[in-house]
From TrEMBL:
The keyword Hydrolase applies. It comes from the Bacteria. This is NAD(+) diphosphatase. It catalyses: a 5'-end NAD(+)-phospho-ribonucleoside in mRNA + H2O = a 5'-end phospho-adenosine-phospho-ribonucleoside in mRNA + beta-nicotinamide D-ribonucleotide + 2 H(+). Its cofactor is Mg(2+); Zn(2+). It comes from Microvirga lotononidis. Residues 164-288 form the Nudix hydrolase domain. Belongs to the Nudix hydrolase family. NudC subfamily. Keywords: Hydrolase, Magnesium, Metal-binding, NAD. The lineage of its organism: Bacteria, Pseudomonadati, Pseudomonadota, Alphaproteobacteria, Hyphomicrobiales. Its EC number is 3.6.1.22. Pfam families: NUDIX, NUDIX-like, Zn_ribbon_NUD.
Length: 300
């Protein structure tokens, strides 16, 4: 079954103008509230076919000492609140067959919740992860406090305000006529090749990041670059910026550190990789933007 790219669909109305302590307190008290709970970085789901990550607010009674809460927005007339619970909480739910504690990548791959919930879960995971890891002021070292219904942390010692971060990553399919460049990292599943990717650096355009990363990883010079689409990637808080770039050179060189292999693939190769009928190579997962980029290129 082909799944849409994961985490791109998020039906929440964010209501960013209403992010204040009152909104968060009201939402947490509202009987209609849908509660999204992460035990550490693992979402807790109501099991089902499909299941859901939108839990009744009464779940909080089973989460003693939960840590931070964020008002994510409204789903129709239901406020949605994300709650961070201690990682050990996951164990206390293990005997309850009505609940499942599953990592967010598996939730997407296995289609355990409706596709629209994946974007909302990505948002919750990235925000709660940020709270978990930014308890102290980067400016003066004092403890910070959650503010703006969870979209800011404030330092009362020096007055600094800290905002949740999103780290941009460029991911690109580099093409040369009827062939495209893909590589594989040692951690990839067997036979899988995917688009090259890398972090955008400060003071760099998206286009230049595509050119630099491709040259660093595969020794290929890139000319024209065009943007295709993007994908939130909540591991922990990236946005993948999908591009197609035109190669100016043919000869691939790589140092074996980042990539263990890189090669040119024909459209016929890629078509068969997508179909799963290639004897030698596999395409990246359908939940990943890389799969979408090569699919679009094959169609062109
Ligand atoms: Zn401070």
């Amino acid at each position: 079954m082909t799944r849409p790219i994961a985490y791109i669909s998020n039906p929440l109305v964010r209501h960013s103008a209403e992010r204040d302590p009152v909104a968060l307190a009201n939402a947490a008290r509202d009987p209609r509230t849908a509660m999204v709970v992460l035990a550490g970085d693992l979402p807790i789901l109501l099991a089902g076919e499909p299941g859901t990550s939108l839990l009744p607010a009464s779940i909080l009674d089973r989460l003693p000492g939960h840590q931070e809460q964020v008002f994510l927005g409204m789903l129709g007339d239901r406020p949605v609140v994300a709650t961070l619970a201690a990682p050990e909480t996951a164990e206390s739910f293990q005997d309850d067959a009505s609940l499942a504690v599953v990592d967010l990548r598996s939730i997407a791959v296995r289609g355990l919740v409706p596709a629209e919930e994946l974007g909302l879960l990505a948002m919750a995971k990235s925000l709660l992860d940020w709270h978990r890891r930014h308890r102290f002021c980067a400016n003066c070292g004092a403890p910070t406090q959650l503010a703006q219904a969870g979209f800011r942390r404030d330092c009362s010692a020096c007055g600094a305000q800290h905002f949740p971060r999103t780290d941009p990553v460029v991911i690109m399919l580099i093409t040369r006529g009827d062939k495209c460049l893909m590589g594989r990292q040692p951690r990839f599943a067997e036979k899988m090749y995917s688009c090259l990717a890398g972090f955008l650096e400060p003071g760099e355009t998206i286009e230049d990041a595509v050119r630099r990363e491709t040259f660093e990883e595969a020794g290929i010079r890139v000319g024209a670059v065009r943007y295709m689409t993007s994908q939130p990637w909540p591991f922990p808080s990236n946005v993948m910026i999908g591009c197609i770039g035109e190669a100016l050179t043919d000869e691939i060189t790589f140092d074996g550190e980042e990539l263990e292999d890189a090669r040119w693939f024909t459209k016929e190769d890629v078509r068969r990789m997508l179909e799963g009928t290639h004897e030698q190579f596999n395409a990246p997962s359908p939940i990943a933007i890389a799969n979408h980029l090569i699919r679009e290129w094959v169609k062109e």
